[in-house]
Design brief:
Length: 122
């Protein structure tokens, strides 16, 4: 897989969704991620309402690897089925991210948008 450039985010239209939204931007043709797998990804995340970026592996210049079960529920639900080489957008409501307002995380109460490139599984 060639190194892709950091994705551009389109401004969302309408109110934030109440449930997880999964949209494949590029369908990969490599190994498929399964629940509980360890994945290597490049990703960027923005707040739904403001469009403000809060995190990006591209900003750090390197991919990150982690077990899905250690991540927010929206990633645990949204990455399985994705194939290596793919790029997927996840729109994650607060109850599948960092919980309601006052939950103790700076992103609590916020709907988040991630664009994720799946680089490797396992």
């Amino acid at each position: 897989m060639t190194d892709r450039t950091k994705p551009e985010f389109d401004a969302p239209a309408g109110p934030a969704p109440a449930e997880l939204v999964i949209r494949d931007i590029i369908v990969g043709d490599g190994a498929e991620a399964k629940p509980g797998d360890t994945v290597t990804v490049h990703y960027a995340g923005v707040e739904y309402d403001s469009g403000e970026e809060f995190d990006s592996s591209w900003g750090r210049g390197e991919t990150i690897q982690f077990p899905l079960r250690g991540l927010i529920q929206g990633w645990q639900d949204g990455i399985p089925g994705m194939k290596v080489g793919g790029r997927r957008e996840l729109v994650i409501p607060p109850h599948l991210a960092y919980g309601p307002v006052g939950g103790g995380h700076f992103l609590s109460g916020k709907t988040l948008i991630f664009i994720i490139d799946l680089v490797a599984v396992g």
